[in-house]
Amino acid sequence: MDVRYTVGKNEYKRMTTGELRDAFLVDLFEAGTLNLLYCEVERAIVGAAVPTTGPLTLEAGKELAADYFCQRREVGVLNIGGTGTVTVDGTEYAMENLDGLYIGRGSQAVRFASADAAAPAKFYLISYPAHAAYPTTLAKKADANAIRMGTVEDANKRTIYQYIHENGIKSCQLVMGFTVLEPGSVWNTMPCHTHERRTEVYLYFGLDETAKVFHMMGPGDETRHLVVGDGQAVISPMWSIHSGCGTKAYTFCWGMGGENQRFDDMDHIAIADLK
Q1: Does domain 2-273 have CATH number 2.60.120.10?
Q2: Taking the domains of the chain in order of start, what are their residue ranges?
Q3: Is the pTM of this model over 0.85?
Q4: Tens digit of pLDDT for each residue in 25-42?
Q5: Taking burial as the number of CB atoms within 10 A of a residue's CB, which of 4, 132, 136, 233 is the most buried?
Q6: DSSP E strands, 62-212
Q7: Are 100 and 89 in contact (CB under 8 A)?
């Protein structure tokens, strides 16, 4: 498990492109490996498991000072690869592409496996501390709360799929889902906003090797950007916008934790006020 420490918005103003990428951009997916990154902000952990020749086990490591990973944590999982299974305390959950899973606090044994090593599952993980236990629950794409938003004229026609949220799968503080942009649409979350009460992580995927997303970050009056490729994630602190524009349509997973679970708890910033 790697560890990354907080960068404040005053430090951010003086950072180079390389320093911004080192602080906020995350590479996670590696064949045959389970990678984790512990972030000081909200004590979030993001990770990825890509099982190939054998299953991969989620372990606490010394960073958590816990007997097992979910002893004091909850986890959201999204499969962005081939078919696979997640086994939680002996119960097996089959997951196809874009299926999700909520793993509740107190779950002791968590294992990831692929149905076909040649086309492995790619399990994205996001975790926050939890003070209450909720049942582990499978989320199928067909059962998600789908919200259609945006217009062709604004190049942001998209569908938001909500999995873990206050009116869906119950959790302590984790909120998670994903958004699919339609062909010809490239903007997400514009007009943009911040979450003063929550920290968010964006995972971008569904991009071919020639495509990129320009992820906009920073306070609304002092923005920067990160150029992001397929399977890369961006940590978005409470003081930062989190908006992106791609060279092609793409999909992204959003996950957040903090003071509340209200999806619409946003501090909006008008386009005219961006700098």
Answers
A1: yes
A2: 2-273
A3: yes
A4: 999 999 999 999 998 877
A5: 233
A6: 73-79, 84-88, 91-95, 100-103, 110-114, 123-129, 137-139, 145-149, 158-164, 175-181, 187-188, 193-194, 198-205
A7: no
